[in-house]
Protein 1
Amino acid sequence: MLAITVVPLLFFLHAYAATLVDRQFPHLIVPVKQDEPDRAFNTQYSGEIAVKAGAHQVYTEISFDVPTNAAQTCNLAFTIAPANGPWTLSGDPAAGPLVFNISSLPNASINKDKDTWNSRPKSQEWVASVEVAYNGNVKLTGGSVVCAKGSAQQFVMYPGSARDFGLTWFELTQPLHGVTYEMYVP
Ligand SMILES: *[C@@H]1O[C@H](CO)[C@@H](O)[C@H](O)[C@H]1NC(C)=O
Ligand SMILES: *[C@@H]1O[C@H](CO)[C@@H](O)[C@H](O)[C@H]1NC(C)=O
């Protein structure tokens, strides 16, 4: 009897004992815009994801320089600090939270000087879906990635459906705001 109750408790404690060893901010934030399909925007301080009438899309490519450390699990996170984080969200609040997705890009595929809507690298695998409510609540599904220690790890953020919205955010450490790469030891 005792064993049956103790084992799940240990798993529970284990799951909550994960320690954050590092949090990285994107080293590159490169938008590509369907409306200016051959223009390269270079790296920016803000991220942007948008779609209107199923077109006029804006994607944002991001690259993290993943350090070498003791981390054993890594995941992407997205945080909005509604009161004092600089962000904008357009669209119809009555339609519920907007959704954007994140997919992986091949290693070293982002070229900040050259990437355009037409020439952007093809994404690989779905990594996360992120719901953002108009009050700033965020719910991320998925997000776990292989820890590419000592290497760049790259992703693209894009609308999760054809529903109209526009989201912009400025990356900030204090308060924590935007997309981050989190590294944990179990
Ligand atoms: C990515 O590429 C760099 C240099 O080209 C290489 O050193 C690194 O191991 C690669 N990382 C992965 C995860 O493939
Ligand atoms: C975004 O991800 C969800 C799964 O969470 C999927 O159903 C949806 O089709 C994806 N959207 C796009 C545009 O790939």
Protein 2
Amino acid sequence: MFDDFKKNSHPHAIFEQWYLESQGKGSSSHILDKVKSRLRFLGKQAFTQIVPSLDRMNYNAVVLATASLSGIPASRVVLLKGHSEKGYVFYTNYNSSKAQHLNENPVASLNFFWAYPTRQVRIFGEVKKVSRKTSQEYWASRPRGSQEGAMASEQSHEIQGYDSLKEQLKEVQEKYKGGRPIPCPQNWGGYIVKPKSYEFWQAMPDRLHQRVLFELINKKWVKKYLAP
Ligand SMILES: Cc1cc2nc3c(=O)[nH]c(=O)nc-3n(C[C@H](O)[C@H](O)[C@H](O)COP(=O)(O)O)c2cc1C
């Protein structure tokens, strides 16, 4: 891993490399292949049960931690839908509990965990809404079923039960029947986490795990090694 840090001066470049490798692409694709071939030895049942789930893993799932202004924390999984040196983008309901936290305390921590190779990336940063145009473009790219579901759900609000959610869905389907385009709701869109620090963690033998912290100080990324 230390080689990765010599090659890449911007921590986002390391994130990109690890992100690819978590999907079995890039230089460590052989590791996922090794895991799969080992599973073959465990027998046909293990192979057929475990390998499809390895392939279906949500590599872009990330734990998003926020806190209320009074310091009450909350975390939940969201899906990463954009990533660049500028920041890390996810989409959600702007009336949800997380949005409430982000309105009053616009900072967040993202925690990526990937099993093969075993790695964690923690990103801390300020959070902003993406432009309405960006949200609309992403909304338009979503499958119709996801659009209907998002429009029907008042995320994080109490509902009578699952049936009432299905009723809401029917109303949306009725309103937009005949394939009419479903517009991006005003209360739905993206957030971007603009990183101020990254911590990369990689499992190593005998608990001698490798940790590297990057902090943005006076617009420059400053690197530190941390004890595991
Ligand atoms: C694999 C997975 C992916 C998810 N992706 C999203 C997502 O991209 N956006 C979202 O708002 N919620 C997503 N959720 C649901 C959230 O974890 C959470 O339940 C929801 O956003 C409400 O959180 P809140 O009440 O803290 O706002 C996902 C959950 C899982 C398990």
Protein 3
Amino acid sequence: MLCPYCSREMEKGLIQSPHEIAWLKGEKKRMFGRAGLYGDSVVLSELNFVKGSAVIAYLCRSCQKVIIDYADARSDCSARHVSADD
Ligand SMILES: [Zn+2]
């Protein structure tokens, strides 16, 4: 993937967590419950009790940006339809 800011090639990697990884609208931290409980939330990686959660992310070191393409269902490494060697 090319960086949309500088057009350099981005580095593919993972953002990992022992918890669900989600984007929540606004700047207020939500300490309790899963993202699905909150309107406008986007779950980026479902909670997997065995492996934890992980989502594919692309890094640009020049611009110091990280991009997650959640339109691509394969981005969520915890989703059940994804094979381990994908
Ligand atoms: Zn860049």
Protein 4
Amino acid sequence: MSDNEAIHARTDIDVIVVGYGPVGQMASVLLGQAGHTVVAVERHAQMYGLSRAGHIDDEIMRLLDRVGAGEEFREDAVEWELYDMRNKAFGGDLLMSFDWSVIGPHGYRSHWIFYQNNLELALNRQVERTGRVEVNFSTELVRFDQDAESVTAYVRDRQSGEERTLRAKYMLAADGANSFVRRSLGIEAKEGHVGPNQLVIDTLQKRDLEFEFDNGQFADPERPGCLFQLGKHHRRWEFTLSEDEDPGDYTIDTVWELLKPWVGPEDVEVLRWPIYRFRESMTQEWRRDRIFLIGDAAHTLWPFAGEGMCNGLRDAAAITWRLDLVLRGIASPQVFDSYQDDRQPNMQGWIDYSREIGLPCIIMDKDAAAGRDQFLFAVQQDPSLMPRATVPPGPTAFSRKDDPTAGLTAVQGQVRAGEKEGLLDDVAGRGFQLITTSQGVVDALTEQERAGLERIGASIIVIGAPGSGAPIEDVNGTYRDWFESLGRVAVIARPDYYLFGSATDRDDVHQLVASLSDALGATIPA
Ligand SMILES: Cc1cc2nc3c(=O)[nH]c(=O)nc-3n(C[C@H](O)[C@H](O)[C@H](O)COP(=O)(O)OP(=O)(O)OC[C@H]3O[C@@H](n4cnc5c(N)ncnc54)[C@H](O)[C@@H]3O)c2cc1C
């Protein structure tokens, strides 16, 4: 670094976030809310404004509520009720039908459809509220290096051309699928299966619209596609292109031609109609010393499960609690070692699952489509014929060793404490949670164990049946059922909603807390 650069270098930063898409925004708000100083750089002049993600699940809704963005998000989001797959958009046969009006394990409806710009606005509002995050638009990361103490980022103002230097303890690369950071580090992103070209048409409704078949897939071999609401005011149609079609031949006129069976210019305004080639990729290294990859910078998948951004947000949740503890000196940097091993198997599961559910939707060969239809009709009669879909495994790298409950979802239910009723996180607190249905378990904790748990901000939660005198009442019996199915007396949930592990009996709770201490770098004295 030259003297001049050194004078202009900002050195008070904890974390630089490169890229202010939804994943960079989530990382920024989580770190800002934890009290860390963050500088985010985004090369665009404003938030991206290109809506791509349209679906989240209940885990991500829990995360949105954690950062305070859930309420604003829900103002325009739609709870997805029913997901149908037919073999024609109009008058086709029903191939599969899913009732999505269920409550997921995180305590929310399990599928939500929304307009991405509204999600970004809601996240950005919470970022601003932290007062700890400086967001620099029109600012591009052009070079960076790192040493044992810090990361130095050279950023250029795209309007003035002026270069500045930022120095921080860590850097998060949330810079999207073509990640400049990943490429500069020479990290390979292994390519997986390449999907078809897909025309994605986003529209703004000019009036309320309702269709007999909505929010589902039409797996018509003539022209497969799907349609769904993007929140309360937008709608999306997608159409698969065959390999012999040239995306360059598509014009706004062809777009209107495709939309004609549903809507015309009096019904909707076409906002954008990009053509995407669906790809899979997985970074081979998620961390290089003080730099971590998150979001599309680390991985991409086919979007059929609506889980690409969701997984980026999972990355943000997984890395920020580690950064928070290390920056506060509460955990050793050894907690970073488990980031890749936690995230990669889960991500690969989502990549496989997304392809498995996508492939039957995009068949353009008539005979193959007829075979698929026959198979799915048979499945309607006998569901056991359906092969088991991949279930993405939970994270088990940061966990109690040899614990069969490690990596399971930390279930959330409705609870009551005095006058306050709501989901557990709201009532009992977020972060690490030691949850038990037995007061005796908590009474058995030593002072040191309690102090250690408090130090990492863990909530100690005793849940019992309504009227049992337990400090937190299990309104719908969620925790009674969960603990019964686990056969455990206590669990420790991680801040990113997976189990660190559980205890088989009261004595074992001491071992459980000690193993958390070990995993964090011996900060909870036994
Ligand atoms: C058609 C389609 C449908 C999808 N549907 C869903 C869905 O329903 N649900 C879901 O969860 N996911 C979905 N996805 C995936 C989702 O859109 C992405 O996973 C998500 O947008 C990735 O977010 P990100 O923040 O990681 O990256 P991006 O949104 O790409 O943001 C990266 C940011 O980094 C900035 N940047 C890049 N380089 C630099 C630099 N050098 N300096 C400064 N800034 C830089 C870019 O300008 C950009 O703003 C879909 C994707 C597609 C294509």
